[in-house]
Design brief:
The structure is a homodimer of 218-residue chains. Chain A has 218 residues and is of the alpha+beta class. The first copy, chain A, has a single domain, classed as Electron Transport, Fmn-binding Protein, Chain A (Pnp Oxidase, Chain A, Roll), CATH 2.30.110. Chain A has five helices and eleven strands. Chain A has helices at 24-33, 70-75, 119-133, 146-150, 210-213, and strands at 20-21, 36-43, 46-57, 60-66, 80-93, 101-112, 114-115, 152-158, 161-167, 185-193, 197-198. In chain A, strands 1, 2, 3, 4, 5, 6, 7, 8, 9 and 10 form a ten-stranded antiparallel beta sheet that branches. The radius of gyration of chain A is 21 Å and the shape is globular. At the A-B interface, β2, β3, β5, β6 and α3 of A face β2, β3, β5, β6 and α3 of B. β10 of chain A pairs antiparallel with β10 of chain B.
Chain lengths: 218, 218
């Protein structure tokens, strides 16, 4: 059985708690499928929400950015942050306007991020960012040099205070509405990859690799 | 020419400002194509980031939720919030690990939300939420009754302090890396709809409408 994460006052689900999960395996599955997280942090009493790429290294979420980025600079001070990852799986069309919904899987993580200073650890983090987005590419590309490593800030956030929220399946209508002559059901949604587009500066004869031609998140 | 939104200290783009846009038309296009926003707010010095559906009514962003939701209750107090909408358009595969990127379009809006109290305005907001997600459905479904309207909190946020950030096109590699024998380019990504799935309780003979069969965000 997968380990459960302990609930805290911040992660306790107040609304529709039956959709919640504190199961580490469920949380990791969502984090490993999605690409983008939305990072929330406070500067001078103002909340900011910034989309960014991420990777996971065991029980840590990794975020990176330019050493010149305000977000990275603020977060490396050890402030409280909230990282949210959302996958949209479908539109839930009910018979009543009120019960329209979406199928989704989301994860919310609270904590304070730590600066990754060790150069080998930083290098490994950059490998994980690439591997998270496109497996098998790392071994083909030019590895980061020490100037690039210096220009990149990597932060890690322990996945210790986290919850998942998941809605699946059919709409739930009021009993009397099931008799209405209205179609109801789910339109499934998925991120699909198109045909790879060559860089305009690509020399003739270099073909897209299979991991790009057959790209999928499944 | 489309109206420009004035920059403020909060919306000023510090990183790669050439990717920024303060053009109302660009901002609206992104808001109208996406589904989900991530709302950031502060409760007791802790940032929260919550994914939720939204709609746009002219220069207002509308958010709704259960009257019992903590997020809606906190936000209706007129606190500072930050709403971010992100569309992921592609994976940008460079020759160097360092220059890997994503093509995206995002909008960040700052402000304080106002509670929509007027019942007619609230009803119209609910119509816009449905129309935003699935055009043409509203006229077929059971409209919200007054109990449902009471149970729904609608907030509106003026789109006055907002910016868009957009990355498009090819990877940008270091000059000397263009000679490397590595494929580079973009894998386009898009949210695609699958075949509608009937509600298990749907009576025989009710077929999915065309707007569900041909669903697309284009």
């Amino acid at each position: 059985m997968s380990e459960k994460i302990e609930q805290t006052n911040r992660t306790k689900l107040r609304r529709i708690p039956k959709r919640g999960s504190f199961d580490r395996e469920n949380i990791y599955k969502i984090l490993d499928e999605a690409f983008i997280c939305h990072v929330g942090f406070i500067v001078e009493n103002q909340p900011f929400v910034i989309p960014t790429a991420y990777a996971r290294s065991d029980e840590n979420l990794l975020i990176h950015g330019s050493a010149a980025s305000r977000m990275m600079r603020e977060m490396s001070k050890g402030i409280d942050i909230c990282v949210t990852v959302t996958l949209l799986d479908g539109l839930v069309l009910a018979r009543s306007a009120f019960h329209h919904s979406m199928n989704y899987r989301s994860v919310v993580i609270f904590g304070t991020a730590k600066l990754v200073k060790n150069e080998a650890e930083k290098h490994e983090a950059l490998r994980l960012f690439t591997e998270h987005i496109i497996p098998n590419r790392w071994e083909e590309i030019r590895a980061p040099n020490s100037k690039e490593l210096k220009g990149t800030t990597v932060l890690k956030l322990e996945i210790n205070e986290a919850s998942a929220k998941i809605r699946t399946g059919d709409p739930i209508d009021d009993d009397e509405d099931y008799e209405l002559n209205i179609w109801a059901g789910v339109i499934p949604l998925k991120i699909e990859a198109g045909k790879p587009i060559d860089d305009k500066k690509l020399p003739k004869g270099i073909k897209p690799p299979n991991y790009a031609l057959n790209y999928s998140r499944d």
